[in-house]
Amino acid sequence: MVTLGDALAQTSSQLPAGGTGSTGSPRDANVRQVVLGIISFTRWPVPPARVRLCVVGNTDYARDLLAAPAGAASSGSAPPVDAQRQSVTEPAIGSLCDALYLGAVSDTERRQVLASLAGHPVLTISERNDSCTLGTMFCLNVDADRVTFDINLDTVARSGVRVHPNVLKLARKPGTP
């Protein structure tokens, strides 16, 4: 069983290049660990048997997320995660996804995607830190040797999903150093 401490330690660890299961760079592997860690400590109103992770937009670090075999386990007793690309214009994205990984999109596309999620319990994670002020829950900060994240607490509160409070404590609120 993976404890919260174990998962949180993984979020700041650095994997060697070409680490186990990695098809991309160490940054891709680190992003995968952080995203799967966040997913593992998220609870939906109706627990999914498999978490459907949708990847939208042009991404820099989603290669390992998409390359994982279908049903890859996030950790411990968390449900398996199936990652797939979705179109930014998919109107049913809120019912097709339990979690959304957002890459680079235009402001209009971001508004469209987020509007499509309204009323659906979807965890949102963005590669772009500026998105934390624009409607996503978690925003990644990808450095050469680690991945951290910021959080938009208002968006979390309105999302319909619950995130373990200790994960929330790790995040920086937007605008804080």
TrEMBL record:
Record protein name field: DUF4154 domain-containing protein
